[in-house]
Amino acid sequence: MSGFTISRRTMLAGSAALLASTAMPTIGWAQTPKKGGRLVVAADSEPRNLNPAIVASNGVFFISSKVVETLAEASFDGKDGLQPRLALSWEGAADGLSVTFKLRDGVKWHDGKPFTSADVAFSALQIWKPLQNLGRTVFKDLAAVDTPDELTAVFKFAKPTPFQLIRNALPALSSVVPKHVYETGKIEENPANNAPVGTGPFKFAEYKAGQYYRLQKNTDYWGKDEPWLDEIVYQVLPDRTSAAAALEAEEIQLAAFSAVPLADLDRISKVPGLKVITKGYEGLTYQLVVEINHRRKELADLKVRQAIAHAIDKDFVVKTVFLGYAATATGPVPKNDPQFYTADVPTYAFDVAKANALLDEAGYKKGPDGKRFSLKLLPAPYFNETKQFGDYLRQALAAIGIDAELVNNDSPAHIKAVYTDHAFDLAVGPPVFRGDPAISTTILVQSGIPDGVPFSNQGGYKNEDLDALIAKASETLDTAARTELYKEFQKKVAADLPLINVAEWSFISVARDTVGKIANNPRWAVSNWADTYLAG
Amino acid sequence: MSVLRRFLRTPEAIAGAIILAALFAMALSASLFFPGDPQAIAGPALLPPFQDWGLPLGTDRLGRDVLAELFHGSRTSLAVGLAAAAAALVIGAIVGTLAGFAGGLVDEVLMRITDAFQTVPSFLLALAFVSVVGPSLGVVVVAIALGAWTGPARVARAEVLSIRERDYVAGARVIGMHPLEIAFREVLPNALPPVLALSSVIVAAAILTEAALSFLGLGDPNRVTWGGMIAEGRTVLRTAPFLSVIPGVALVLTVLGVYLAGEGVVETTAVRRSLS
C-alpha cells in the first residue's frame, strides 16, 4: 500500500496539469505524428452495397472511399479545385468530344494485379454510365474509352460535353473498380460489391452486420509512406445520441457527418480532449428544399408559391433548427460554391402580411375557420433537421392560413410516396449540391424525368424556358459562358420557384485531439484518409 | 353510495382517483387554458422551465410551449388509452362469449385464433400494423386493440363456461330463446365484471404502447403526444433533459393513477362479492 499514497504535492501537481491541459488550445495540442494505430469511427448507417462506382452516395463513400479510389479528389488549393489520385492529369479537347486522362504508374489492386487504363475504360463504360445513380446523367453521351497505352484513357463523347462538368464530377463520380474482378457475371450481383477491391490506402477486411466494418492498411499503396494508420474500424452506432457518449468514453475517436447532434456540440466542445471541426465538408453541401407538387392547382399558381416563400423565416430556421450551423439559401446553388453562385436573384423576405396579401390576390380567401386550403406535407426522414423543419413549416403555413397535414414515413416509403406515387403536396428534401449544377441540381427542376427517379423533379413542374436553358448549358463548352448560363438558371429558378431553397448546411466532425490531418480537403470525410494519423 | 365509500377507503384508490381526476381536468381544460394550436411557436427555443412565467415549463427545440403540449398531449394519451381499451374489451368479450357459449368447433377455431394473436408480442403487432397502414390516431387505436383483446377474450370464455351451466340459462333455453340472444343478453352481462377488472391494466398498457409508438415516430405527427415529446427531447437529452423528463413523469403518473384506481375498483368489487 505504501506505493499508493497521495500527497498534497502530487495532488496539486496533478490538478495543475489537468488545468493546464484544459486551458491549452485544443488544436495543435499533442500533435506528434505517429505511424500506426487504429482509428475507430462512428458509422450511423450500414450500406449494403459498398461499391462507390454504382452507388455514388456519401454513406457509401464514407467507408469505401478508403478502399476504392477516384481519378481525382477535391482540393482546397489545387488547380480547378482538384488534386490527382489515380489520374495524374486530365485535358479536355476544344471540341468537347474527348477528355484525355494520364494515369498513375505503378499502382496495384489489392489482389496484386496492376491497375491499367483498361480498368478505367471498363468502369466508365460498364458501370458509371449505365449503372451509377449520378453517372447516368453526366456520362450519358460517353460513347467509347480509347486506351492507346496502359496509362492513357481517352473518353470519347458522342455529343460535345463541357470539360468543366467532367472535371467537377471527378471527385464523386469516378471511382475505379478492377475489370478482372467485375468482368464475369452480373455487375450488380458481384460479391465485390459487399467487400470492395480497390487501389486505395486501406483494404477491406471484414464486416460484421450491426457491429462494425474493419479496413486494414494496404502495405503496397502507391502513396509514399502512406497510409499512416494501421486500421480503421467503423463502429455501427445507429442511435445518434450515443456517438457523443462514445466519444467521451474514448470508445471512438471520430464522429463525422454530424453524428453528434447539433444541440450537443456546444457542450461537447468544452470537453477536454475533444475538438469540434466544421471544415472538411465544403464539397458536400446539403440543401434544405421545399419540394412542390405542381399538380395541385393552388401550388401551380406562382403567387401561392411566392406566399409560401415569404412565410418561411429562413433566419429562424438557421438559428433554431440548425443552431447556426447552416446558412440561409437564395437559390439552387449554395453560397459556398466558388464557381457558379450568384447573389443576384429575386429574394423573398420573411413577411407574413405580404404572404397573406399574395394568397388573397390569388383568390384563396380565408374561410370562416381561418383556413384557405389544406395540404399534405411530407418531411424527409433522413435527418433530424428535415423533420424539425417539417414541424416548423407546418406552423409557418398555419400563420398564412394554409393547413398542412404532416405525413411521416420511413425512408423507402418516403421515396416511393414522393418520387414514384407523387402522393404529396409539399415535401421537405435534402438534395446535395455536388460542385456542378449539372450533376444533381438541374434534375430537380428539369421536366420529362421518368417517374421513380429519386431526388429529381417529380412535382410535375414544366417550364420550357428553364428546360431550354438547362439543355443549352449542358452543351456549352466555354467555361465562362457555361457559368453565365447557370447564373441565369439560378435567377429563373428563384423567380419561378419550382422549389423553394431554404437553407444550406454541411456537417460537423467531432474528434479526439489525437487525430491529425482532419479536414484537409473539401470532401475530407469521404476522401481516402491516407495521411490521417493518430498522435502519439 | 356505499360502494363509493368502500372504494375510497383504500389510500391507493384515493391516490389513483386524484391523479385520474387531475388528468381528466387537464385533458378537458386544455383548450380553455391553451386555446389555439399547442404546436405553435410561442417563444425562444430551449427555454428552461421556471424562467419565464408565461412559459412555466419552458420551450422545446422549436420554441413551443411545453406546458401547452403537455396539456394537449394528455388528451391523446387518454383518448387512445380509453378507446383502445374499449375496443379490446368489446372484441374480447364478444369472442370469449361466442367461444365459451357455442363450444365445439367454434370454440376451437376462436381460441386458436386467440392463441395466434397471443403468441405475437402485442407491441410488435402494433408496430407492424402502424408501419403498414400509416400512422394516424384511429390506426394507432386499432393497432393497440389488436394486441390487447386476447386477455379479455380468455377471461370472458372462462366465465361463460361456468355461467352457461347455470339454471337460468337452461331456463332461457327451455322457453325457446335464440342461442345468440341467450349468449349476449343472459350470459355476457353476468360474465362481464371480471372482464372489466382487466380494463385498468389494458388502459395503462395502451397509454404506454401509444407513447412507445410515438417515440419511434409512428404516432400521429399532427397531434402532440407525450411519447413524441420524449422522442424529440431525446436528441437534446444532455443539454435539455427537462424536455424528456417532464412528459416522462406525466406518463409515469398517468399509468400509476390508472393502475391504482383500477386496483381500488377490483378490491371494492371483490369485497362486494365476498359480502354477497
DSSP summary: helix tally of chain B: 12
CATH architecture of chain B: Orthogonal Bundle
List how many beta strands of chain A DSSP finds: 22
Largest interface: A-B, 25 and 23 residues
Helical content of chain B, roughly? over 70%
3D structure, described in words:
The complex is a heterodimer of chains A (536) and B (276). Chain A is of the alpha+beta class. Chain A folds into 3 domains: 68-191, Dipeptide-binding Protein, domain 1 (Alpha-Beta Complex), CATH 3.90.76.10; 200-282 and 508-535, 3-Layer(aba) Sandwich (D-Maltodextrin-Binding Protein, domain 2), CATH 3.40.190; 285-505, Dipeptide-binding Protein, Domain 3 (Dipeptide-binding Protein, domain 3). Helices cover 29% and strands 20% of the residues of chain A. Chain A contains 16 helices and 22 strands. In chain A, the strands form 6 sheets. In chain A, strands 13, 14, 15, 16, 17, 18 and 19 form a 7-stranded mixed β-sheet that branches. Chain A is globular and about 75 Å long. Chain B has one domain (3-27, 63-275): Orthogonal Bundle (MetI-like fold), CATH 1.10.3720. Chain B is elongated and about 75 Å long. In chain B, helix 2 packs across helix 12 (242-275), helix 3 crosses helix 9 and helix 10 (199-215) packs parallel to helix 11 (226-234). The A-B interface holds A 240-241, 244, 261, 263-264, 266-267, 320-321, 381, 384, 388, 390-392, 394-395, 398, 405-410 and B 37, 39-41, 45-46, 61-63, 131, 134-135, 217-218, 221-222, 234-240. Chain B: It is found in: Cell membrane. Chain B: Residues 74-262 form the ABC transmembrane type-1 domain. Chain B: One of its GO terms (biological process) is transmembrane transport.
